[in-house]
Amino acid sequence: MKDLKSKITLVTGDITKEESDAIVNAANSTLLGGGGVDGAIHRAAGPELLAECAGLGGCIPGEAKTTSAYKLPAKFVIHTVGPIWRGGSYNEEGTLANAYRNSLAEAVRVGAKTVAFPAISTGVYRFPADLAADIAVRTIILFLKQHNEIEEVRLVCFSNESTEHHRKALEKHLSL
Ligand code: AR6
Fold first, then answer.
1. d(CA 128, CA 91)
2. Which ligand 1 atom sits closest to the C-alpha of 26?
3. CATH number of the domain that residue 153 is part of
4. Tens of pLDDT, residues 87-141
5. How much is the pTM?
6. Is 82 helix (H, G, I), strand (E, B) or coil?
């Protein structure tokens, strides 16, 4: 469990500055850009990112697709689509877990060893931040236990409150 602990890093900041091999984008099904972290990633990467995304044919919630990262310090952007929170009875939890798992599977597929995640679905999509952090951490730990290829997962939180939710989730799941 100690080794696992050293593979997950919690930071507060802007994911567009991350130098991980891959950063994950919390996109929408069109993959054609939007607000929040998606808008920030497209602005920082430059217009070539949108041009590549336009050829991907969109993305179903819970799935993930990879592009180059263009002007970003990362090598790849893994675009995933989280669920829109609609009260919790539309398998939102399962879809959020799929978004994390399939993003990590994409990282393994393209050979990215370090991956940075934003708190998927917790902004415009209104997923409760504490529950989302719990699902994120639980899903990442399970994946890392099964796949040695990933060396580091960075949880890049945009607010102190978000960081606190992830800190609590890490404490809970790493001490189990
Ligand atoms: N770095 C890290 N995290 C960020 C950044 C940043 N630069 N900017 C925002 N966040 P959101 P969603 C945090 O709304 O809920 C877009 O329009 C933010 O504080 O970006 O999955 C897409 O096109 C929050 O904690 O994504 C979709 O239409 C987290 O990132 C829709 O929003 C996610 O918030 C997706 O909504």
1. 14
2. 21
3. 3.40.220.10
4. 999 999 999 999 999 999 999 999 999 999 999 999 999 999 999 999 999 999 9
5. 0.98
6. coil
64: β partners: 80
Largest interatomic CA distance in the chain: 45
DSSP state of 15: G
**CA dist., res. 144 & res. 92, Å (int):** 22
Q: What is the CA radius of gyration of the chain?
A: 15
Nearest CA to ligand 1 atom 34: 123
Q: Helix, strand, or coil here: 80?
A: strand
14: containing domain = 2-174
Counting the structural domains of the chain, the total is: 1
Q: Is 93 exposed, middle or buried (0-12, 13-18, 19+ CB in 10 A)?
A: middle
Strand partners, 68: 76
Residues with Cβ within 8 Å of residue 47, at least 6 apart in sequence: none
**Ligand 1 center to residue 145 CA distance, Å?**
27
